[in-house]
Amino acid sequence: MISAILLAAGESKRMRGENKLTKLYRGKPLIQHSIKNILESSIDELIIILGYQNTSLQNFIEKNKKIKIVINKNYAIGMSSSIKLGIKNLSKMTDAFFICLADMPLIDKNIYDDLIKSKKNNDIIVPIYKGQQGNPILFSKLMIDEILNIKGDNGAKDILKKNIVKKQMLPVENEAVILDFDTQDNFK
Could you tell me the pTM of the whole model? Predict the structure, then answer.
C-alpha cells in the first residue's frame, strides 16, 4: 500500500497575510491542485495535515474515500510536527509513503507514479531536476522510526543527508518538483 502525507498546516508567513493554500491559481484554490494530482496517481490513501486556518481549508477539500484529514494543533512548532502526525495516522498496511508539500501544485500524477515505479530496494526515492533535489519524497516504512525523531521546521532534510546509501535519486524532466508557491509573485 502506498500512502501520501500532504503537509498543509503552515502559516503562509511570506504571503503578506493571505493563506497561499486558499489563493486562486488557474481558477482553483492552490490546495485543490495538489490534492487532485495526488489522488490521480496510484496512491492508496491521502492523509492531509491541516493546522493554521484549518476550518476554512476544510471547505476546499472534497470528500473522497482515500482522504483522511488530521488537524495539527501544534503546527506552530514547525513542519516536523505535521510529518510525525501524518506518520502516526498511516494505515498499518502502508509499505511506503510520500511526504508532499501542499504549496507545490504543479507536481502531476506522472511524477508520483514514476517515483512509485522506481522504488525497488531503496528506502528513500528523491526526484531530482537538473541536479537539484525536489519533492515529493517517497519513503519506505523502514524509515518511520528515524523520521519520528526529527525536530523543528526542517522536515526530513537531515534524514536525506544521513542516509545517502539508502537514497535513490530519480532524474525527472519536470521542474515542478522544485517549484513551490511561497510569495505573491509565485502566483503571477
Answer: 0.92
